[in-house]
Amino acid sequence: MLTPSFRRLLPAACALASALTLAGCGGDGEKSEDNDASAKTSPAEVRLEEACGGVFDKKIAAEAARSGVDRVTPVKSESPAEAAAGLSKETTWGTGHDLCFLENGRGEELMSLDVAWVAHPVPGGDSVRASVGKPIGGSAGSLEVRCGLNERRTGDRYALEFTLRDAVTVSAHSHAKLLIATAKKVTSAMACQKQPQYPAPESVAPAPKPDKYGRVAR
Fold this sequence. Notes:
Elements: H1 4-41, E1 46-47, H2 58-66, E2 71-74, H3 80-89, E3 97-103, E4 109-118, E5 128-136, E6 139-145, E7 159-166, H4 172-187, H5 201-204
Antiparallel strand pairs: 1-2, 2-3, 3-4, 4-7, 5-6, 6-7
Helix pairs in contact: 3-4
């Protein structure tokens, strides 16, 4: 049975408890909002096959895993359609478009692939020229592609150059696959007067054969 004095104190006690509860909830809410904002601004790690629009197939992912890389952090890059739209409008050469930029959990670059117009045609009048297997500086390979758009942007004067950097060190065959798969996505979204004829990756660099321990030569 409640005494008269306890009845008088009960409303005040409830009010104090309610105030403390609301204050606690408010503090937790602010921290939660801060954590949510931080999570939204920080790129999430994904499996390599999920990065860069799916240009990494299972074999490339397996090669990278043997080097200790199975999850990566994609940094903001342009989609092939966005890059194609920008390249189609440009009237000057040299503006680069990042198509794939991957980091590890420490913020170190693992791999990147970009494209830009260069002020020369594909050598020999070819549709495509691939250069892999002989790294120059930080480049692991490049792909020059003929894509004439109009009288100002002709295939006889300009080419698209896709450049790959690779700190994971997958094989030259994988480099060829990445360059060709990415270039196909970009040029298919462009009004090239004549669509490029891409070679098979095997003709650019043969697929590496694993040794008896399952290791693949780079």
